[in-house]
Amino acid sequence: MRKVTAGLFHSVDGVVQDPFKFQFDSFDEDLGKGLTKMINTVDTVVLGRVSYQEWAGYWPDASRDEDFAAFINPVEKFVVSRTLSEPLEWENSHLVEAPLEEFVADLKKRDGGEIAVCGSISVTRQLLFAGLLDELTLMTHPVVAGSGRRLFEDGDPLTRLELKDQYRTSKGNVVSTYSVRND
C-alpha cells in the first residue's frame, strides 16, 4: 500500500497559510536538503484548488528553484476542486472526479511511490481526519506569524500522532515528522 504524506511550513503560533510571508528569511540549506529527500520518494501529488492555481501560475515558468520546478512540473498531479474543469493547463494535472476520500483510498492501492499532499490545508485536514494520511511533516519556522489559517482548529477530533523524526536546521527551523496513528 502506498503512503500518503503531507508537509507544511508552519510558524511557532501554528499558522500554515501563506508561508511565503514568513519562511524565506529562515529557509536554509538544511531545510532544502530535507525537502529534496522528501520529494525523491514522491511520484504523485494531490493539490487543492487554491494551491493548484497559485502554483500553476508560478512553477511552469520558474527557474530560480530548479530542483523543485524539475520535480513539480512533470509529476502526476491530482487537483481537488468543485469549480475547475478539464482540461487543466498545467502539465500532467487532472481533476479528482470521485469524492476525495474514496479517490485517495483507491490511489493508495495502486502501484507507485509516495503520494504527497502539497500546500493544501483543507486537503491535508480532510485526509488526516479520515485516517488516510500516513505521515505529517511540520517545518516550524522560528517566527510568530500572528494571523492566518492554522492546520488545527477548535473542535477537531482527537487524533494521535507519533513523532517519527525531528531535526533542527542551521537557521533554527524544527522539522518534525509524525506518523498518524489510526487506533
CATH architecture: 3-Layer(aba) Sandwich
Low-confidence parts lasting 5 or more residues at pLDDT below 50?
none
What general outline do the C-alpha atoms trace? globular
pLDDT averaged over residues: 94
Q: Report the order of strands and helices.
A: EHEHHEEHEHEEE
Q: How much helix is in the residues?
A: 10-25%
The CATH class name reads: Alpha Beta
Q: Find the CATH topology.
A: Dihydrofolate Reductase, subunit A
Q: What is the number of helical segments per DSSP (H or I, 4+ residues)?
A: 5
Main β-sheet, in a few words?
Answer: 8 strands, mixed
- How far is the N terminus from the C terminus? 18 Å
Descriptive overview:
With 183 residues, the protein is α/β, with parallel strands linked by helices. It has a single domain, classed as 3-Layer(aba) Sandwich (Dihydrofolate Reductase, subunit A). It is built from five helices and eight strands; from the N terminus they run E-H-E-H-H-E-E-H-E-H-E-E-E. Strands 4-3-2-5-1-6-8-7 form an eight-stranded mixed beta sheet, sandwiched between helices. The longest helix is centred in the first third of the chain and has 11 residues. The model has no long low-confidence stretch (mean pLDDT 94).
